Each structure stands twice: as structure tokens, then as C-alpha cells.
Amino acid sequence: MSIFSFSLSLAQKGDFIHPGYQMDDIICLIRWMGVTQQRLRISMIPVPVLSGPTSGETIEKEIIEWARQARRWTIGAAEVFHYFVVKSRRMPIVAACSWGIAFLIYYGVLLCTGGLFGLTTMLSMIFLVKNVPLIISYIMYGLFALQMLTFSIAFIIDMFIPKLLHVDECICFPRNLFHFITTPFVLLAYSLVELYALHEVVIVSKKIRKHGHICKMLS
Q1: Cα–Cα distance measured from residue 119 to residue 191, given in angstroms and rounded to the nearest whole number
Q2: Where do transmembrane segments lie in this chain (predicted)?
Q3: The dihedral sign for the CA sequence 126, 111, 49, 59
Q4: pLDDT in tens, 41-77
Q5: Pick from 90, 89, 54, 91: which is nearest to 73 by CA?
Q6: Whole-angstrom Cα distance, residue 205 to residue 219?
Q7: How does residue 16 score in pLDDT terms, banded at 50, 70 and 90?
Q8: Rounded to two decimals, what is the model's pTM?
Q9: How far apart are CA 107 and CA 79, in angstroms?
Q10: H and E: helices and strands count for the chain
Q11: Which of 31, 25, 30 is nearest to 12 (CA)?
């Protein structure tokens, strides 16, 4: 979820926003970098906001709603990547390459394939591959530690930002610790939802895109 603002002059130069795509913030960035022929810098505005997807009334409904939102976000990300591929030729080369690599790492590696790769690798090392060299084991443990370090940075930022913005937030340490420990499992579930949604995009892309827009309007 994001809350963003932009100048009217930039919107006019960029011919405003393409109405056929979700994720207006990223679409604007791609579109306007092509129009201005330069990398646009996003500045953070230190204003506390409450932003999040719709929630369910019970745990079961919350999980269903979470999966629905994850599916919609994945469809939107696929649309954004398609839009980027089309518009990248109009963007500065350095900006297009750096932005495209960052997009693939975040959406393609971290969110979609990270959990699935970790699960399949662990299962193969337990049941299929015998006498795994120590160097391979150390590499796998190192990658897992790097992943958890990335998550820990996000948790640390989330812990200090409310204090910097002078926002009273009552979230106890055991709760944060529980969320941190369950992060790999949540990421795995998210990866499964993303894998399903991406196959939907590939097989029935037009119907899914229309459904995604409807979901966006309803949410």
C-alpha cells in the first residue's frame, strides 16, 4: 500500500495516468521517467498515516482476504512489468536498467520465488541429495541468514519510525518476535498465492486483468 502525491505540472507533462492499469504510483513513475527522460527521485514525506488492505471479521476471513489482496497485488505487479517492458525504451538506459533489476529482485525473487526456492531446496537436501558438501550447506544457511537479516531490518525500521514521528504504538516485543519468527512461513504462503496468480495471468490474462480492476474498485 502506498500514499503518494505529485505535482500537477509533472502530471500534465506525462499526460496524466494510464486508466487501464492498476498500481497508479508505479505506473506514474515509469510513464513520467519516459516523458522527462530522467530518473525521478521519490522523496519521503514524514507524515504518519494508517494505510492497509481490507481486513476480515474473523481469523478465517482475514486469511481469505489476505490471499485475495495478495492475488490482486500480484496481478497488478504483472501488469506493471508488462507496462515497464513496453515503456523502457523511452526511459534513460541507466534508470531503466536499475529500476528493472530492483523490480525483479523484489517482486520476482523476494516475494515470488524466495519462499518456494527455500522450501524445495530444503526438501531436496533432506530426501534427494545425499552427502551434501559442507560448503553447499554453509551457502544455504548463509542465504537463509541473509533473508532473515533483511526481514530484521524491516522490523527494526518499523520499531523506530513511530518513535521518530512521535506516534504512540502499543505493540509488545513478544508479538514482534512471533511475527519475525513466522515471517518465512508467511512468505512461503505469499509465494504460493503469487505462483497461482501468475499462472492465472498467463492463461487467462484479459479476464484476470478486468477482475483485478473490479477488485481494486471494491477495495
Answers
A1: 11
A2: 96-129, 135-157, 177-198
A3: negative
A4: 888 777 777 666 677 788 888 888 889 888 888 888 8
A5: 54
A6: 21
A7: confident
A8: 0.76
A9: 12
A10: 9, 0
A11: 31
